[in-house]
Amino acid sequence: MGVARPAPRLRALPPNTWWWVLAGVVMLPAAAPLGVLAYGLVSGVVTTVPMARLLELAANTGALGAAVTSTSLLIGGASAWLVSRTDLPGKKLATVLVLTPFAVPSFVGALALLGATGADGILSTAWAWMGGDVIRYPSGFWAAWLVLTLISVPLVHLAVAPAVRSLNPTLEEAARGLGAGRLKVFWTVTLPQLRPSLTAGALLVGLYTLSDFGAVSLLRYDTFTRAIYLEYAGRVDRRPALGLAAVLAAVAVLLVWLERGTRTRGVWFTARPRRTGSPVRLGLGGKILGWGFLGTLVTVSLLVPVAVLIAWVMRGLISGVLVNQPWAELGRSMWVALLTALVAGVVVAPVAMVTTRYRNRWAGLLEGGAWALYGVPHIAVGMAMIVFTLWLARPLYQTLVLLVGVYVVMFLPQILGPSRDSLGRVSPSMEEASRSLGRSPLRTFMGITLPLMAPGLLSGAALVFLTTLRELPATLLLRPAGFETLAIRVWSATGEGFYTQGALAGLLLLLVAALPLAIVTRHELIR
Amino acid sequence: MSSGFQVGRRRRTLLTALLTAGLLVGACGGADDPLLIYSGRGEELVGPLIEEFSDSSGLEVEVRYAGSTELASTLLEEGSGTEADVFLAQDPASLGLAAPLMATLPSDVIEAVPPRFRDRGHRWVGVSGRIRTVIYDRDQVQVSDLPASIDDLLDPRWAGMIGVAPTNGSFLAFVAAMILDRGEAATLEWLKELAALDPLDYPKNSPIVAAADAGEVGLGLVNHYYLLRLQAEGAGKRAANHFLSAGDPGSLVMPSGVGVLSGSEQSEDAHRFIEFLLSETAQRYFAEQTYEYPLAAGVRPAASLPPIDSIPTPAIDLSDLHTALERATDLVAEAGLL
Predict the structure, then answer these.
(1) Over the stretch A451-483, which tens digit does the pLDDT of each residue have?
(2) Is a pLDDT exceeding 60 seen at residue B27?
(3) What percentage of chain A exceeds 90 in pLDDT?
(4) Can you tell me the distance from the alpha carbon of A57 to that of A64, in angstroms, rounded to the nearest whole number?
């Protein structure tokens, strides 16, 4: 029997101290971007941006956030209600269809919109063939609103569906019994019960809109993220870009903090035992309307975009334009995502251990730091890390080690959540039993804890893989020379107007994302 | 329980191996450093050319693609510690920004190109020429109505009809040239009047040309070669290029160019690369594939283009263009064109 002999000094420390040291080491890199951004905020770097510009960006970003949030709440709320509260046939299929657009990165959505319209757009061409005028290139607010809303609907759906499912029907029945009308019941009884999950959904979408770089940069709507990149790319002085990034990061951290607050209340809310009501009966007309709604949603947010991409690729194949095929990019995207998922899977263990097993201030700090960084828009993290590596960690500047490291700390909560869920179901008494039977802490972890954590780790790693594949702004700023990924390829080809090239890379990205998405979605469906 | 441990250990070993491999790949730049080119010109345009150089010279080449100005700023940030050997840029302004970091080029390289398309201090040399033009839709705009100068563009009759790409590098270079030619105040005034005409806003030049060809815009401020590329794909029959005759920044002749970083340990290979770019093969590629003006080796431009020396262009030294670039970005934002 193989005996793992820990080094003597290792043995000198009590086992849980080692978990703390490891967790600290894992979370240490997160301090770099947060520190640089905090410095940017307090050091006066922000003042290099004219106040009028700051206000303009804040107004634009806020308007987009409000518009995307309200429309996606309406649509996502409606789809969640249809799927979770009615007797609509084919709900499993409906859920999968509604959630799938989550796999469409915003820059691919923007590519589909740009590729559909304009002088040589797919829809324009079809429309002109039927005798219509050219559909103009959409740009600015409405274009960004459309793309981001369609991608945000699944987020709202995911946040709201569980709450809708567990709505307590007795309250509604009582209100109806007391003579309240349908509308009044909805406003005074149903909606308040849903408020925590709606708020959580709204904050998630707000945060997503605030962070998005791909869609707003390609569709040219002047928000913070686009301005940061323009300042970075068009100016030698890095201070305005860092200042804007610091402001954006501060707003994002505030939203994360609010979102975390609603989340805990939401859990408490839905955890109360109750009977669930019988589904609302839709008549035949209602069922047709319901599927008509879901069908339209899926067509606009998934089928049309994919069809536009396929049409561009076909066009390229026919005219022979499709010369630069992105196989190298595909390879890079896959392996960097795999590497990130693996590293995240390994390093998450100590963080999950200390934050599950020891609830104290330090655990709260580690977890809070992870979540804060998770919410900071990637373009801000990228800016901060450029500054950090240039000033303080030159050997790491534009290396793969840095890129993967940044991915891991940014996406850690995605694997931390599921791992903690799994770990929470393991009773510490099993570990204690193993220890009392003479097993070393390491062997106990490998033999008992790790296998029980495995399902959470797998689903979390799939999510990290998926997110890494789609990551654009941090990759754009931090990648090593020549390290073009599929996401970069889609973005730069679309920006240059090479839609054929972009479409092929975009389709490959969607295909590669399908498997991890299936794993993640299944996890959500079971939950 | 024992088997659980064994599996765990094997898994751990596997993970460790993979991680180590990954980190090693990332950490080592490779034993034999390739020639590192920072290219502000897109992979779609210069990728095939760089590949050909790599094949013919047997040198390993690595390319970092990004915007020209972005790479110039990156070079300034990296300073003398940069790993880059060569900077290939779309415009003289970016080259000018990075020029302090560049070494003087050998005289045979410099002298291959006319003086107005190279740096005063011989640190960069032009590779291909591009001219600012006005693209127009022949169905909407009569030849007799075409503007002669950028000031004619401000006529109210063009309200809502002009396509611009205000964040694009070549538009910013045009604005920078205007600042050198006319001063900041006049430039800001011109930009504000343009903004008052509600121009249609595009990310790049190519969609403006496609839009003119489809009648979506009447006029557009672009570079000359986008139309020729569109025509090569069988489209571009409705749009036409118009070269402004007033000799103002609207017909700026602007070279893309290249220089060698002074910190480069492979300056000989870098010079070979520049010689290749100025060779007949590469110059022919620019003439025939990207429809730019060849600047060396006696190669002739595409037949449909007027000779480069016949274009009236403002009397500014392109080596100074970078001094106005930052202000150009500010003025475009101030005029409300972003």
Answers:
(1) 888 888 888 898 899 999 999 999 999 999 889
(2) no
(3) 38
(4) 11
pLDDT at A274: 53
Q: Which residues pair with B123 in a beta bridge?
A: none
Touching check for B206 and chain A: CB below 8 Å?
yes
Q: What is the distance between the alpha carbons of residues B56 and A19, in angstroms, rounded to a whole number?
A: 56
Check residue B6 and give its pLDDT: 39
* CATH number of this structure's domain A20-29+49-525: 1.10.3720.10
Measured from the Cβ of residue B264, the count of other Cβ atoms closer than 10 Å reads: 20
Please state, in angstroms and rounded to a whole number, the distance separating the CA atoms of residues A123 and A115: 8
Listed residue (B138, B139, B112, B100) closest to B261, CA to CA: B100
The model's pLDDT over B188-233, given as tens digits with 9 standing for 90+, comes to: 999 999 999 999 888 778 889 988 988 889 999 999 999 998 888 7
Q: CB distance A484–B65 less than 8 Å?
A: yes
Question: Which carries the bigger pLDDT value, residue A15 or residue A223?
Answer: A223
Residue type, A61: T
* Residue A296 CB neighbour total at 10 angstroms: 10
The position carrying tokens 């290099």 is: A48
Which residue, among B1, B5, B77, would best test binding to A if mutated, counting the most A CBs under 10 Å from its CB? B5
Nearest CA in chain B to A401: B26
- Give contacts of B 28-57 with A, CB under 8 A: 36, 38, 42-44, 47
The pair of structure tokens assigned to B216 is: 């979506």
ipTM entry? 0.70
State the pLDDT at residue A525: 53
One DSSP character per residue, A26-47 reads: HHHHHHHHHHHHHHHHHSSGGG
Domains of chain A: which residue ranges?
Answer: 20-29+49-525
Looking at residue A102, its pLDDT comes to 82
Higher-confidence residue of A492 and B280: namely: B280
C-alpha distances in angstroms, A224 versus A56, A219, A248? 9, 14, 7
